[in-house]
Amino acid sequence: MSNVSRVYQAAPAGFQYNPQAIATQAVGVVLSKVAMTLIDRVIYPEPKLTELRDEMVKVIDENEPKVMEARAKQVYVPVESEVRGAPVATSDVTSYIEQSLDALQRAQEVTKCKVCKQEIGEAARAVQTKLATIQNTDKVYRTMQDLEAQGALPRGAKWSTLKETERELVRRHARS
């Protein structure tokens, strides 16, 4: 018994298979797969990440003169503390960092590139992690300057040169 007659025998009553129709469908499926593979791999290949990165760097390099030109047109008014060389207040330091975090978040929302979104997100998380350390360190630094001005610490004192009792004094004042 041939394969074709077995197929006819296995069919339910009243339903007959047409071998020509089955062959046509099979050829259609194969041609569809070949066409889709051709489109995916040849006509519209998935871009390589290095090529995307190179393209982004090229766009940045091309637009850098425009950005520099726009920055040059901005009027720079120095902050009073910058003029005298005095340290910037902590609130200013943290506000600069928070503005940078906001800018990173806006950039992450604007970009369509998944790799860019991921990299920007990692950068924002790293900045956010360091923000608490910066705030604490700056508070200790300002406290040391205040205590030095009051005469409680020697002039030009650094954290590494302080005795443990002096460090504890700085910690107490920084907490209050």
Structural class of the helices, strands and pairings?
mainly alpha
State the share of residues found in helices, binned by percent.
over 70%
Number of domains: 2
Total of helices: 7
H/E topology pattern: HHHHHHH
Q: How would you characterize the largest beta sheet?
A: none
Please provide the count of β strands: 0
Q: Quote the distance from N terminus to C terminus.
A: 98 Å
Principal-axes geometry comes out as elongated
Low-pLDDT residue intervals, each spanning 5 or more residues: 76-86
Q: Evaluate the radius of gyration.
A: 35 Å
Percentage of β-strand residues: under 5%
Structural write-up:
This protein folds into two domains: about 40 residues; about 90 residues. About 5% of the residues have low confidence. It has about 180 residues and is mostly helical. The radius of gyration is 35 Å and the shape is elongated. Helix 5 packs antiparallel against helix 6. The chain is built from seven helices and no strands.
Give a quick set of tags describing it.
single chain; 176 residues; mainly alpha; 2 domains; 76% helix; elongated
